[in-house]
Amino acid sequence: MTLSKDLLDILACPQCKGPVNYLSVAQEIQCDVCRLAYPVRDDIPVMLIDEARSLAENSDPADKA
């Protein structure tokens, strides 16, 4: 199941208050500014900074080209 567009339109990164993107394959919401990924569990976004994982740690050097 995917998150509704209405929900995605109102979600913001809890750290920087910026826009976020939903990745359905990874089941997470990502902030490109903070480089954090927030999990989606049972179709519920867990928008807690303590629950987020850093995208910087798992980035692929080829992505920076």
Overview of this structure, please?
The protein is built from 1 helix and 5 strands; from the N terminus they run αβββββ. With 65 residues, it is mainly beta. The protein has a single domain, classed as Single Sheet (N-terminal domain of TfIIb). Strands 1, 2, 3, 4 and 5 form a 5-stranded antiparallel sheet that branches. β3 and β4 form a beta hairpin. The protein is globular, with a radius of gyration of 12 Å. The mean pLDDT is 87.
Looking at this protein, list some descriptive labels.
single chain, 65 residues, mainly beta, N-terminal domain of TfIIb, five-stranded antiparallel β-sheet, 5 strands, 26% strand, globular
- The percent range for strand residues is 25-35%
Shape: globular
Radius of gyration using CA atoms only: 12 Å
Reading off the top of the CATH hierarchy, the class is best stated as Mainly Beta
CATH architecture: Single Sheet
Indicate the percent of residues in helices.
Answer: under 10%
Unreliable segments (pLDDT under 50, ≥5 consecutive)?
none
Count of DSSP-assigned helices:
1
Overall mean pLDDT: 87
How many strands?
5
Overall domain count: 1
The major pleated sheet works out as: 5 strands, antiparallel
Distance between the termini: 33 Å
- The structural class is mainly beta
Order of secondary-structure elements: HEEEEE
Looking at CATH, which topology would you report?
N-terminal domain of TfIIb
